[in-house]
Amino acid sequence: MIARLRKQHLLQRLTQGLRSAAVILLLSSFSLGAGTTDATARCGGIDLRDHLTDSARARLDADLAKVPYALGNHWIATRGAQRIDVIGTQHSGDARMSSMMRRIRPLIRQADAVFLEVTEPQMIAADSDQSAFARYFLLPPGQRLDRMMPADDWKLLTARLAALGIAPEAAARMQPWYLSDFLTGTDCRKRGFGSQRGLDDRIERTARTAGTPTLGLEAPEAGLAALASMPLPDQVKMLRFDLRSKTRHEDLYITLSESFFDGRLTEGRILLSWMIYRDLDVPRREVHRLLASFDRVVLEKRNRAWVKRLTARQEPRLVVAVGAAHLAGDTGLLNMLRRAGYQLAPAQD
Predict the structure, then answer these.
(1) Into how many domains does the chain fold?
(2) How far apart are CA 262 and CA 328, in angstroms?
(3) For residue 335, what are the contacts with CB-CB under 8 A and spacing of at least 6?
């Protein structure tokens, strides 16, 4: 479940080209079938924030107040004559992004450059080198997932994956983080215009039309490398939790998405940390450790690399558009920019 809800937007952005080409071609060599989906499925998720008790709401507000830069998807960082508009994005599409773009377009036209996590040309170039991505989706040679899990869990996992068209031999070679993504799917992601029209894509297309240069903050494989860098024992543990948990994935997805559009994504992420694996006999301390470990490799480590790149730029006007989960927190992008000498202020929409 962590592997879906905390990385789904990252995975959509990084594999929207790769999954249809490199990944599918790669995994098909291990008899990966073409799983079926229910075309009539509908999202039945709810925003959990609307169903909190008064005491839970008070606790959520208190936890939110402890997080630096927890509110807002658009901040302005200034240092000397330089201005950076930092925009938190959602990578999957939603019709409400049209109104957001009306405010963002003038900034793109005025900018000297637009930075994204990765750009479309980067992804196209990366897709031509399919074999380079194999190590992020597959286990190292000689390692097999069926030897890392109890037999009863492996039996249950292969049964679940068979319904998706994934053969046992293919599953045995895949990295656990990737299989978790298959287990915890939700039709809620299909709302709006779809993953190809997320806020990042809209910003990039607008910049291209305006003639504003677009640059990637990292190599296309960096996000996948971060996911694959999680310790294998932790990956296996999360996969086993995902396999056994009955958590309503659609509720968590809707809560995160609605929190984003309210400019309060951190609120949704706090609720996720409360709810994830609640139905399992797992110490909350261990769940929080796994969440923190995930954030260190997928958010914090990449944030540090991005800040180094941004602070080296000399252009007077920049726009930076990255997943909104990267913005808030002690090790969030905004706090790191503050430590680098920038003054931060929320944009007045």
Answers:
(1) 1
(2) 15
(3) 68, 69, 329
